[in-house]
Structures are given as C-alpha cells and as structure tokens.
Amino acid sequence: MPVRLAINPLTWTNDDMPELGAETPLETCLAEARLAGFEGVELGNKFPRDAATLRPVLARHGLALASGWHGSRLLERDVEAEMAAAEPHIALLRAMGCTAIVFAEVSRAVHGERATPLSRRPVLGDADWTLLAPRLAEMGRRLAARGLRLAYHHHMGTVIETEAEIDRLMASTGPEVGLLLDTGHLTFAGGDPLAAARRHAARIAHVHCKDVRPAAMAAAKRQDQPFLAAVLDGVFTVPGDGGVDFAPVFATLAAAGYDGWLVVEAEQDPARAHPLTYARMGHDHVAALAAAAFPQ
C-alpha cells in the first residue's frame, strides 16, 4: 500500500481553542497516535519547531512528520514577504523529510473568530482572484524549488471554502499549486468530496480524512453558527463515525496514482470524544478502506 496513515493532533489538543486538551502533554498525543496504529503525525501547537529537538521526540514514538499548516496572507503581502514569513516552517518541514506543505490563505478569515457566524466569511471578488492566483502560483514554484509541494487547504470560514472556489483556484493556477482534499470541510461547505476528487485527482497533494455528523452540520447551518461553535457541537468526527463515504474517494485517489499521506483529522472536544478511542476508530476505518483501494 503506497499511502501512509497519519493523524492530526487536533484529536487531543486544539490549535484554535487551546483550552481544549490544554492539560494533555505532547508525549501523550504521540504515544496514543502510535498506539492507535498511525505512522505519522502533523504539527500541532505543542510541537517543538526546530528539527534538532523535534526529530528525537518523534523517533521515540516511531512516528514521521507528515506535514504542517501555514496560514498565508498573500492578499496582504507579496510573495517575497510571504516566503520570508514562512521560512522557519519551510526549513522545519524540509529538515523533517516532508514533501508537502499544508497551505491556506487566512487573510480576512473568520474561522478563528468565536462570535462571527460562517455566513459572514470572506468572499473573493474578481480583483482579489487576479491578485491571489498569481501569487499562489509563484509560491508554489518557489516551494517546489525547496522540495515542497504546495497543498492548498480549502477551509470553512476562509476565502476558499466551496467546491466552486476550489474549481476556480485550480483553473486559475497550474500544477505548481496542489490541492489538499479535506473531505470534512468540503462536505460542511455543501460540496461533494468525490466529485472534487474526480475533477482534480492529478492535483491532489495531501488528504485530510475528516468525517461530518449530518445532524450537527444541519444544526450549524440552521443556527448560522461560528465555525468553532460548530466544532464544539460535534460537527466533525473521525472517518467511520459520520456521513462521508470514503471508499469511492480512496478508489479515485488510487486510480490517479496518489501515494501521499492519508491524515485522519477531526477537531472535537476531547472531554466529549475520548482521543484514543476516536484515534483508533479513525485509523481502523481508513486502514481497511485504504488496503482495499490501493495496490499492494
């Protein structure tokens, strides 16, 4: 099986709401990630950010670093400034052997604003697209020269959230801009992860396997909740515990020759969703489907 399975530490401790899982040490996150069966992890807010310190920490648990999030502000600053801002992160990922960088434009974003409903998230005009797309393309080229593929993360509450916006991003850039397919965020945004995977399979550089609880999603939309309120109410869960059908998505990825990470990610309140229990649930569901979809 060419793909590898990783987990995001959001299962244990939340980056946008640090009080969730604040008491849980990094060692617990890593030990339980390995116990659940994962080969890798993504970065979280408790991770050391220099390779000399991080490498032995992960090695103790037999884990690799899959990637890590960079929130860009290319609507506010040029590529030179963005590259400078991202340099410590780029250096860390390269030193840790990563091949993709999780990349999301966070200018004007509302996903971290606890009182702002998702209906008030930013929407790009034509002038914004004219500015953003060439800058993303140039970032992609520069990152490729550093050995990293830009994996663009569409995300609730940001300027690229919907299926139509993903399509426009892909059409406005070339292969230098890869796509991070996040099944949960796209479902929450009203999109179809399978349709998006089929259209953009050749551009998919990284995958977040996130499930959605349909009832919680419907309530979040009906109540026009802020993103973090929806998270607290359980809109996201691990694969196998929600309404997303992962099997055809994996089959599409396999047919396109995808050979990167499948990352289980489900930001939940760890007081309500026992982290190791859910980590095991997500791992076992993804592992079984991946074994069936991807050639040995």
Automatic annotation (TrEMBL):
GO terms for molecular function: myo-inosose-2 dehydratase activity. Gene3D superfamilies: Divalent-metal-dependent TIM barrel enzymes. The lineage of its organism: Bacteria, Pseudomonadati, Pseudomonadota, Alphaproteobacteria, Acetobacterales. NCBIfam families: myo_inos_iolE. This is Myo-inosose-2 dehydratase. Residues 31-276 form the Xylose isomerase-like TIM barrel domain. It comes from Neoroseomonas soli. Pfam families: AP_endonuc_2. It comes from the Bacteria. InterPro entries: IolE/MocC, IolE/XylAMocC-like, Xyl_isomerase-like_sf, Xyl_isomerase-like_TIM-brl. Its EC number is 4.2.1.44.
